[in-house]
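A reminder before we start the practical. When you read a complex entry, don't treat the lines as separate problems. The point of joint prediction is that each chain is placed relative to the others, so the output describes one connected object in space. Small molecules and nucleic acid strands, if listed, are placed in the same frame. In the example below there are two entries. Take a minute to note the order of the lines before looking further.
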Amino acid sequence: MRSDKSNHAPLGLKIAAAAGLAFMHLPILLIFLYAFTTEEKTYQFPPPGLTTQWFAVAWSRPDVWAALTLSVKVAAIATAAALVLGTLCAAAVSQTRFFGRETVSLLVILPIALPGIITGIALRSAFSMADIPFSFWTIVLGHATFCIVVVYNNAVARFRRISGSLIEASMDLGADGFQTFRYVILPNIGTALLAGGMLAFALSFDEVIVTTFTAGQQSTLPIWMLEELIRPRQRPVTNVVAMIVVIGTFLPILGAYYLTRDGDQIAGAGK
Amino acid sequence: MTIVAESFVLPERRSTTGRLSDFFWRHPHVLLTVLLGPPLLWLGIVYLGSLFALLLQSFFSIDEFSGLINYEFTLATYRQLLSEANLDIILRTVSMAALVTLVSAFIAFPIAYYAARYARGKWKALFYLAVMLPLWSSYLVKVYAWKLILAKEGILTWLFEKLNLLWLLDAWLALPVVGGNSLSVSYTGTFIVFVYVWMPFMILPIQAALERVPANLIEASSDLGGTPAQTFRHVLFPLALPGIVAGSIFTFSLTLGDYIIPQIVGSSRLFIGQAVYAQQGTAGNIPLAAAFTVVPIVIMGAYLWMAKRMGAFDAL
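Here is the predicted structure of the whole assembly.
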């Protein structure tokens, strides 16, 4: 009889899980409230009044726009590089057998497995040793390095699900390797690549630790925020920017989720 | 006769891409080189190259008078690393990382267990998104949110005041090590933000491990008279352990290398990441900064080796 109960979670578990989720979400919701506060100098709670004027102020700030544009540019190019490199690597690891396959997957994961500060300082000292001046491209170089793994993970998971007989059938019907890639493999991995690309974009758009080491004078949006955090100049503008960043990263994540969820339900049921 | 025999072999493809494709088919290792070459060159040269160059620098030393790097092999920098003040930093960071990992596991477990065992269909998808969104949302925004919360005039003080518990907060802040002027300049604040930012990384690995535990195993345990506590202790926990260890790789490593959180929310006492940042930046002592980065690499190497032996990688 006892096992009848097992489909209902015990109350304690429900409370603990709900409290945990609340702990994860409430602080982010608070950002939305603070974007409307009339208080300029402190983080006073509850806000003395609500206003939408800070959106207009933030909109007319050239430094915010410059940082935003730089972040989008860096993220777009880093994502493109990561898409090419990650897909190539995933294809090699999942479709062929060769000596050192395990090492390759470890090498791809290493840039995010080690703390970001190590990647950052390693790149920085390498740039200064090679006399490469810090520029837009040094930021992109750093970002692409740790974005590869996101694309790689998504692509490898999808490649594993493509049946080998599908590719053989295409070959038997006379398609060459490129045609097979174009008409059989690409449609199958397309959504996984798009999802991986979106996550890579979100990762790059938000990255701060490696960027502080590889950026020269320019500031990406996270660097701009970090400076505001250390030396606040206009808190309400920071609140508005923080809210925009939250929305800006949520959209690609939701998109990536919807692109990959169908596959997960087939392959992920019990792992 | 000859026509039939010939038709078994397809004529060679005429187009360039066709010929290239045939060439790759006959020489699979060339195709492999073409596929693996660019990513390996990138990661090998850009990443491993810089990492190696950095580690090499930890064996150089800095000239105390000129402030220039002395390119001679020496262990002097490591001797400097093991000085009392620096060991203090290492110990503080490692114990913080261990504590953050432990508390993260406590908070993450109920969420993961509920998602793995009771959530179904729509709820399961909702749980997944509810975990993924905070995990992926902006790191700096999360830290910023806590700066708002922990500030002296912020929501937490207000909440304590409304509950008439302000004396409790003041008593806690008066404690020697964990206290401070306000929560946002105390170890307690640093600790809360660390847990908040890295805890989501713990949930999915635990959930993956728990999803592989058959429900009838738990029923069998209670049928045999095990209390819920016994079932947890002897059945559920051992089976979830690889997932917890897998998740702890993230929480531990990420706490170990972070230098932004303790800089924004915390006391002035340094963590490893801040020490690295200060040594390479204002102090200009790249060799010592490099030696400092060796510490997390060695600790994580040992940790990963141990985790692999416990089978934690299957839960990732």
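Discuss with your neighbour: Chain A touches chain B through 85 residues (CB under 8 Å). What might explain this?
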